[in-house]
Amino acid sequence: MPRLLLLAGVLLGTYLRLRDVAGAFLFGDEFHSLRHLRLGFAAAATTFEPNGSGLALPLLQGALAAVLGANHWSLRLPAAAGSVGALLLVHPAVRRTVGGSAALAATLLVAVNGLLVFYGHFGRAYALASALTLVLLWSCARLLDAPRARDFAYFALATALLPWVHLATLAIVGGVVAGATLALLADPARRRRLAGLAAATLGGGAGAALLYAPAWESTMAFVHRKTEEEQYYGRFAAGDVLVLVAGHWTLALALAVAAALGALVLLRRRRADALPLLLSALAPWVALWAARPFGDPYAYARYVLPAVAPLLVLAGVAIAALARHLAPGRNGVAAAVAAATAAGVLLRGPLGIGHRADGPYANVYLGMLPLPPFDAPSPDTPAFYRALADAGPVTLIETPALMNRSRHLYRDYYLQHGQRTLLGFLPEEIDDPPAGPYVTLAAPAAALAARADFLVVHRDAAAEVARYWRFVFGLAAAGGAPGERAVLERQRQYGWVAQPRPELIARLERELGAPAYADRDLLVWDLRRR
Hints:
By secondary structure, the protein is mainly alpha-helical. It contains 24 helices and six strands. It has helices at about 1-20, 30-35, 40-45, 55-70, 70-100, 100-110, 115-120, 125-145, 150-165, 170-185, 195-210, 215-230, 240-245, 250-270, 275-290, 295-305, 310-325, 330-350, 385-390, 410-415, 445-450, 460-475, 485-490, 500-510; strands spanning about 395-400, 420-425, 440, 455-460, 515-520, 520-525. A six-stranded mixed β-sheet has the order 3-2-1-4-6-5. Helix 5 runs antiparallel to helix 6 (about 100-110) and helix 17 packs across helix 18.
């Protein structure tokens, strides 16, 4: 049974990570990557991308776009590969340290963790850093056990690549190196390996420095801006970040308790050899508390994401210990408890019971932690959308595209009508969208008609979004679940909302005729008439 459960967990986790790569609309930070595809390799290698993509991601996305073209796969494959890679690596990376039952439980928890799933189809590099963290832990476990020369090389490589993928992983590298050093010092028979560990660490550090050397000035400018100049409004605590990591406030509490118990069990069993794993899970939290960089709960959850798998491993240790207590010596019981726990997490988290099927809106941040006020149907929903719910299958174009949190408005409409949707970019939003579920309103009317049945133009999207926000936060003021307040508060600011210009409306009327539907908010053309 354990092997079958392991396979089932890997297959389920892979499916959850890949199912929205092609279909979910680009959102938020992903548009930074789209813009930077045009910079070229030389600029990407010598400039730390100022919106937080760093160095590795623009280079990887540029290389993929050169082969695959500018599409969702080239933008998101580093994330998908990293998230699936972490899922595949967690069992071999930690089994030596925690045992087979705990490694199985950890794999199942990683498979269904909402944050790891979300960043498996979101075009950033955090999931890739998660996979490299497990490579570092795997090589560290081998160094503490029966090392070969290549294990020191793997350790050095992971030490070099982790900071290159994301600067926040410096805390994990430091924690693992410190833990490995203490473990070797605690055993006189292994102290001779300290020289190899030091050489591997220095080699990895030198490699990271070489990777950053061409972009050193822009990197330091980014660090200074994030730690000294910028601040988000509002306040939040570590518990708010943990809610995003776990996917629900009750799961956050359970994860904190289980990880703490797992740490105690592992320290008792493995003593100093448990320190690399423990510090890899803890160090990013301590580093964020000490540095307090520019960020909100969502940003901090991203920064600690490479430590989520180690945190879930500690929870897996607690699950395995509980199973041993219930039925000593029976591995089947341990596997069953692990499977039941993972099933509970899946059903209670953002992927399970009560989760609304976001469809193409799966990459808005509500996919990490659903906020019930955003799932309630707006009373101002235009009659056009209400009628679509009972119509046959159609395709509509929504314009403007709404590239930030304001797109929650379209998500609310989608939850009510469920029809296939494309985004229509105004030229001032993006004049050359990538391949995928997108059109540009600069295209001729015939091109629009070839892609969809209805063109929906929002007359004053800013006013429409503002009304929707008043509705949502009116509901939020009536109450809410614990742990939601800080992340809900972050939704208050949604940024710039593009508006269709009068000359665009005039051009559409010339090419398409009079709208088939019009109200206070919408102008809708029936493209099937062409």
